[in-house]
Write a structure and sequence with these properties.
The protein has about 290 residues and is an alpha+beta fold. Helices cover about 65% and strands about 15% of the residues. It is rod-shaped.
Length: about 290
Amino acid sequence: MNNIGKMFVILIFLMCVMIMVFAVTIYATHTNWKAKADALQKENAKLASEIEQFIKQRDDTEKKLYTEIIRKTNAIATLQTQADSLQKANTALTTDNNKLSNEMQTHVSAVVLSGQNMEKLRAELEGYRKDFREAQKKWADLYSTLVAKIDEAHSLAMDLAAFKAVGIQLAKDYQNAVEVLKKHKLLPQPALYDGIPPQGVHGLITQVRPQGWVEISIGSDSGLQKGHQLDIVRTVSGRPMLIGKITIDSLQADKAAAIIVPEYRRATVQVGDRVEVISMNELTAK
């Protein structure tokens, strides 16, 4: 085995160690999206239960309000009947007073007493009116509370519908993501593919600058990003030869500037050398 073969073996060993470290790191940071979706569904169920409780409380409040309104209505009707009776009595007393005044002065004391009774009755009627106004105020407060509870229930129902929609969409997105990963035979570990340029990109060295800088004919339109590494390949005697590696430093749509990685340089880089992503197995097969 020559030195190049030994270097390849060492590189393969180092890459295996790096992949194992990446796999352990990715497994440690794995996020269980299904568990989050289940948690959202549980939260939706909890909100639905709370809304049912609010609706039950609202129904109970409505029943109490209806009973209170009937009771107050009956009390008002009773008070009105009493008021009518008192009014009739007042009219009768006034008539009697006029008759007694015309007939004899001796009955003045009786008329005064009747007037005092009338004042008492008026005071009692005013008390009934005050109670009626307080009952009206309490009814208005209860009605305002009922309206607020109804609005709150509607708001909770809308929030529940929104949470359900989000949960359904998350479940669909999760299923779609799983299908895409299965279709392309990928693992659900984004960090595993960080820093890896897309497969199948091909370009050429268009300029060689001092201090190890080069310019290539592909850029961001080809899916390249800053930090991606590409292989430099040159065909010698009909066979591809790995010349070195470059690291992307700055990009434009159709070109990029990169720096040659010193430890991978095996020959002088020239204009026209190819840049692409290859594996050791692919290079050996070629």
